[in-house]
Amino acid sequence: GAGVSQSPSNKVTEKGKDVELRCDPISGHTALYWYRQSLGQGLEFLIYFQGNSAPDKSGLPSDRFSAERTGGSVSTLTIQRTQQEDSAVYLCASSLGTEQETQYFGPGTRLLVL
Amino acid sequence: DAKTTQPNSMESNEEEPVHLPCNHSTISGTDYIHWYRQLPSQGPEYVIHGLTSNVNNRMASLAIAEDRKSSTLILHRATLRDAAVYYCILRGLNNAGNMLTFGGGTRLMVKP
User: Fold this and answer.
1) Which residues sit opposite B5 in a β-bridge?
2) In chain A, is it the N or the C terminus that has fewer CB atoms within a 10 Å radius of its CB?
3) For residue A29, which residues of chain B lie inside 8 Å, CB to CB?
């Protein structure tokens, strides 16, 4: 079956511009996560959606970052007024939502802020 | 969350077994031990997980020490495709948010 998909695969933007990154989770998965991975670094949790519950935003690095999940499926991560330090690979994952469930990752969006 | 410690890198020859260690001395009784790996230019993928008993699946085996303060991921015959960063992650039953907390992982290099 189809895995997690993300778009675009690559995004180059200028400092100060806004960007939107999209994630299509696996059908039926109620949990959705955003992580980011800066060059040569490990993965850093950003935000978590579970069903209709309020999202866990504890990992968002600043108020320039926001995310939404419409209809319990597709999610969009928005970065406003991008900075060069936002350059990273942004990874989305989904799972069935219960504890210990495997998370399935998408291929990521590589963001470069010039 | 309890912390894990892994070697930064390891090398193996193709078709030989590989033992990737992980120390987690502060593990709690309800923490599961999960392993994910990240191939170059890809998102992480699940490998295996366990609680107390050793586990086997088609990808690997997981050997858990009796005191659970360490574990070892075993690849029985390394292939070039197994070259990746391997992450050992603890997930508690009451892990708020259920997110994965990645450390630095072990970069496995496989020589032909």
Assistant:
1) B23
2) N
3) none
Q: If 0-12 CB within 10 Å is exposed, 13-18 middle and 19+ buried, where does residue B42 land?
A: middle
Q: Do A103 and B46 touch (CB under 8 A)?
A: yes
CB atoms within 10 A of CB B104: 15
A103, closest residue in chain B (CA to CA): B46
Report how far residue A103's alpha carbon sits from residue B11's, in angstroms, rounded to the nearest whole number.
Answer: 27
pLDDT in tens, A29-57: 999 999 999 987 789 999 999 888 889 99
Of the candidates A105, A108, A86, A94, the one whose C-alpha atom is nearest the C-alpha of residue A19 is A86
Q: Which of B52, B62, B54 is nearest to B29 (CA)?
A: B52
Cβ-based contacts of A35 with chain B (< 8 Å): 99-100, 102
The one-letter amino acid at A37: Q
Question: Is residue B97 scored above 70 in pLDDT?
Answer: no
Confidence at residue A103, expressed as pLDDT on a 0 to 100 scale = 93
